[in-house]
Amino acid sequence: MKIIKGMSISKGIAFGNLFFLKDTNVKFISKLVTDTDSEIERFTHASADAFNFLQSLYERTLHTIGSENAQIFSIQQMMLHDNDYVNSIIRIIKEEKMCAEYAVDKVAERFAASFLEMEEEMMRSKAYDIVDISNHVKFFLSENVQKVVLPVMTNARDKIVISDCYVPSHVVDLSFAGASAVVAFEGMKKSHASFLTRRFEMPAIINSGEIDPDLNGHYAAVNGFTGELIVDPDTKTLNTLKKRQLRYKNVKSFIHKIYEKKSLLKNRAAVKLIALDLDGTIISNATSYSDKVIETLNSAAIQGISVVVCTGRVLGEIPDTIKDITGIKYFITSNGASIVNHNGDLLYTDTIEPDTARRIFNILSDYKCLIDLYIGGKGYMQKSDALILDEYNVTDGFENVLLNAREMKDDIMSFYNETQPKLEKINLFFADIKERREAIYRISKLEPAPKIAYSMDYNLEITSSTCCKGQGLQFLANLLNISMAEVMAVGDSNNDISMLKLAGIPVAMGNSPESVKQAAVFVTDTCENDGCIKAIRKYAIR
User: Fold this and answer.
1) Both 398 and 364 in a single domain?
2) Are residues 219 and 86 in the same domain?
3) Is the same domain home to 439 and 364?
4) Which residue has the higher pLDDT, 364 or 522?
5) pTM
6) 3-class secondary-structure state, position 279
7) Residues 403, 308 share a domain
8) Considering only CA atoms, which of 465, 274, 443, 299 is closest in space to residue 362?
């Protein structure tokens, strides 16, 4: 048995085989450049990609550790756009005529050294953030086209992961990868990485000093109370630690139950806006909904809570009985492309770029699909397609919606080419699932890439590159001066994920696929069992 002493930064007991995390710094080749303007443009694009990746980390952790804790990645975004940081990189590219990777690396080195010289540990810890964000930029400067979890992270499940030090993105990746604990040769208790280990409740030790890599694979235990790494523990030590682990687990479980009750009461008091999907959330079988919907939404309105329908449907196909519910004040339609109030006043619109629409239609001409256009709150489709809806796999009662709520045209593409209308959404139904998959791939490669979602197996919903339910909901919340932390969102489909990720209280329906449930914090009952109404009464109505 070997005991290695360090500093505890996150309590708990964990067991697993030791796993040494290899150097994750992005490697590059330093080289001179002749076209500095192009190199600066490379840096600018990579910086934008890194900013978006940090946003994805924010959204990924938002409902796991809370909005206040996820702000770490918003802080990193600010650091990424710091004028001194950006201008220093551009200056090296211009004056030294060096590649962007070299410039980013040198500036990161200088900034990190500057932070490490400061007296306050909180300021010194920012050196790790600089290294983290600079690695993201260098990654996107490489040939990779998409940021992915490092392969080594996928091998970390149930292991005690050892590294020289940790940065915030490592902690997030390791937590989601299922690592049991982390140990670092060096570190700072007040760093963002240390902070995240505590929020993820992952036992962690820093300042252990270098650990012999030959111990890789050995079974070990981490005692997050004493700051000890016990390698090859004997039976007595192992049993003692397992008993303490069980006691701590029971205490945490009890505390979490108390916290959940307090949190539930707090959430109810906080909700100021409820966003509700329609199909599969309020409406089942495309047309029917419970009588309890009207009563519940009106009760919410009486308590001062605004209610917005947030649907993939175009405004004209929302049932009048839904529009007439007095508790509903707003309608976000066409997956976020349009927002109107209960008086029909247009508050917001985000339509597909004309050139993008042209290229989408060129792609679609290679496939057998029903084209359904959403324009100005109305739906348009080809008359001949209405006769063969079954060939396009239009099911679940939606065939009646199409037949009753569409204006029929002899030739849908001639109608579009002649009028050149502003498209809220292109709704599609495919005859062949393989053709649908191929169309998704080709359309996703367009620049700017349009947003692609779906709510049925053979369906595809295309909106502008900046459009989604989450974006529309964010706009409405800002308009009403409501924080997203005060928003409850309920949905069941892929096109609801964007709003669930942004809402303070995200609820997935019991009939949702697993991807939607993972984007939510709470999962309610099914649509047929009034799950949406149950969720509103539990989490919003006081």
Assistant:
1) yes
2) no
3) yes
4) 364
5) 0.58
6) strand
7) no
8) 443
